[in-house]
Amino acid sequence: MNDTIQNKLAILPDEPGCYLMKDRQGTIIYVGKAKVLKNRVRSYFNGTHDGKTQRLVSEIEDFEYIVTSSDLEALILELNLIKLHDPKYNIMLTDDKTYPYIKITNEKYPRILTTRKVKKDKAKYFGPYPNAGAANETRKLLDRLYPLRKCARLPDRVCLYYHLGQCLAPCVKDIEPKIYDEMIEEISRFLNGGFEDVKVDIEKKMLEAAENLEFERAKEFRDQITHIETVMQKQKMVTGDLSNRDVFGYAVEKGWMCVQVFFVRQGKLIERDVSIFPIYRDSEEEFLTFVGRFYDIPEHIKPKEIFIPSQIDKALLEKYLDVKVIIPKRGSKKELVDLAMKNAQIGIREKFQLIERQEERTVGACEALGDAMEISPPLRIEAFDNSHMHGTDAVSAMVVFVDGKPAKKEYRKYKLRETAKHDDYGAMQEVIRRRYTRVLKEDLPLPDLIIIDGGKGQMEVAREVIEDELGLFIPIAGLAKDNKHNTSQLLYGDPPVPIEMKRTSDGFYLLQRIQDEVHRFAITFLRQQHQTHAIQSVLDEIEGVGPKRKQQLLKHFGSIKKIKESSVEELMKAQIPSATATAIYNHFHKDSLSTE
Questions:
Q1: What SS3 class is residue 109?
Q2: Which PANTHER family does the record cross-reference, listed alphabetically (predicted)?
Q3: Alpha helices, DSSP H only, in 271-404?
Q4: Contact 586/541 with Cβ under 8 angstroms?
Q5: Which residues, 6+ apart, have CB-to-CB distance to 191 below 8 Å?
Q6: What is the phi-psi region of residue 485: left when phi exceeds 0, alpha when psi lies from -120 to 50, beta otherwise?
Q7: pLDDT tens for residues 131-163?
Q8: Where does the pLDDT of residue 236 fall: very low under 50, low under 70, confident under 90, or very high at 90 and above?
Q9: What region, left, alpha or beta, does residue 457 occupy, with left being phi > 0 and alpha being psi -120 to 50 degrees?
Q10: Model pLDDT for residues 307-362, shown as the tens digit of each residue
Q11: pLDDT in tens, 191-220
């Protein structure tokens, strides 16, 4: 613990609020809330912790805190700060499944659709449904009951749906908006559990039609009732009412939490969501944060009420979510919460061994690598590789691994600007200079380790730029390959010496992954560049083919071979004018033309 942290711990207030943990670069890595800031923040630096929490604490170099006037304010602030900073140690809420929903579009003449994407487009969404089949069956039923338009674009004449009585034909008729409003209201009522009322209304219409001797009409109503019963009664009822609710349960083991959420729609349990993640404070606090963030995911539509376990602060959630929060005490509703808790316990036991193994191969591998090199765990690694095609099309590539996993959004490609052909050392200097000049200029995070795909010479030229030119002190390692092009040695130190690592260790496996990945990324970029230049250089000789035409041909055919093999007609399909297409064809068939 450094002096800055010790001094701040001594003056923490006895107030509720939020705390923001920072690493050595000032990046916020964790945000939490506390009823008493002094007690909660001090707990991180006192006593013993499991390896996972100790890893978080080992990265903390500073912290900030914000005092709030209530627990509710602290929860709201915590959720907003997590959304703003996206700290790496906070719960990462991801929606692994895309559930089907029924959507009533927000158009002048609305449509009913099934979709897996919930957007902020002022449409009405209902669901989720257990599977696409259930959603489609319900949509087809509604299409039979309510004559909303079916066409994506309005045609200029009536279609078959109009003749079947399933569309009002707004394409050719003026339909009052009030009619559509009434239908949407009825559909909403139907999908929110009111299908029994709709069925009663249809039964009345059926009896009236029969009394008026309109037997065909009565038969249509009878068929509609049958469809409602078939589609809407397929699933077993789990509660005695038809409410929409989400049921939350959780379990904790060895510093990890599993949360299971049951989606109950129209009284039926139709689907569940499972999340497993590490926690760094009281389980009740982590659960509160999870539920608070759960409805930030668009697909998670907030129901009328949610059920939670008894030990959770119901009033706090109710105020934040603006939804009815219930802690069931007995009966079938209590059984639902117990079932969610039981499933969470089973889920975390089943997956815990896998979670531990994954941790060993990612963050654990970083720690093992740091131990072998006698440096801090390199949780952010940036690796570089140069590549060229017989001295031409020289390129470089950089890949980034964070916590032992590839961060592909941060990968970078470099076309070399200043380096002479065959100058591998110059290429490494150029790309290192460009990368870390930009990092300093834009205040981007610095790596804990730089890996050079090469030996001592490459490492030295990289060090000259990093230390002598830019004044940075970042560990630089080299990776050597054996004669079979497999990772063989990690070089480090001044002068560089091989670092002993077992080839079967997770640390060595991480190095192999990094070397393979940076080489793959560089080679892929090289091939793209070479193909582009090959096509451009050949096409440069053809009159009428400028940069735009080259781009069209490259995009359409993908290779010079396919362009050569194409007929004039095929070239014209790439939006090439007839005269230019003929010129291209003639250019590649000079020999055959001269012998004809």
A1: coil
A2: UVRABC SYSTEM PROTEIN C (PTHR30562:SF1), UVRC/OXIDOREDUCTASE (PTHR30562)
A3: 283-294, 314-321, 331-361, 363-373
A4: no
A5: 102, 126, 138, 142
A6: left
A7: 677 678 778 878 887 888 888 888 888 888 888
A8: very low
A9: alpha
A10: 999 888 888 888 888 899 999 998 888 988 998 999 898 888 877 766 667 777 88
A11: 776 677 777 888 888 888 888 888 877 887
| Alpha-carbon distances of 375 from 15, 81, 367, 477, rounded to whole Å | 38, 32, 9, 12
What gap in Å lies between CA 45 and CA 60, rounded to an integer? 10
The pLDDT of residue 237:
42
Percent of the chain with pLDDT over 90: 28
- Check if the beta carbon of residue 383 is closer than 8 Å to that of residue 393: no
Token pair 């990690």 is at which residue? 490
CATH among 3.30.420.340, 3.40.50.410, 1.20.120.430, 3.60.90.10 for 378-528: 3.30.420.340
Q: Using an 8 Å Cβ cutoff, are 255 and 239 in contact?
A: no
Of 268-277, 480-489, 507-516, the range with the highest mean pLDDT is 507-516
- Options 3.30.450, 3.30.420, 3.40.50, 3.40.1800; CATH for 245-350 is 3.30.420
Instruction: Tell me how far apart the alpha carbons of residues 498 and 508 are, in angstroms, rounded to a whole number.
Output: 13
Gap between the Cα atoms of 397 and 154, Å rounded: 50
pLDDT at position 561 = 75
At residue 10, what is the residue type? A
Nearest to 238 by CA among 135, 308, 336, 337: 336
Cβ neighbors of 367 (< 8 A, separation 6 or more) are 55, 377
Look-up of token digits 């009420």 = 305
Rounded to two decimals, the pTM is: 0.59
Task: Report how far residue 573's alpha carbon sits from residue 581's, in angstroms, rounded to the nearest whole number.
Answer: 10
Beta carbons of 491 and 497 less than 8 angstroms apart: yes
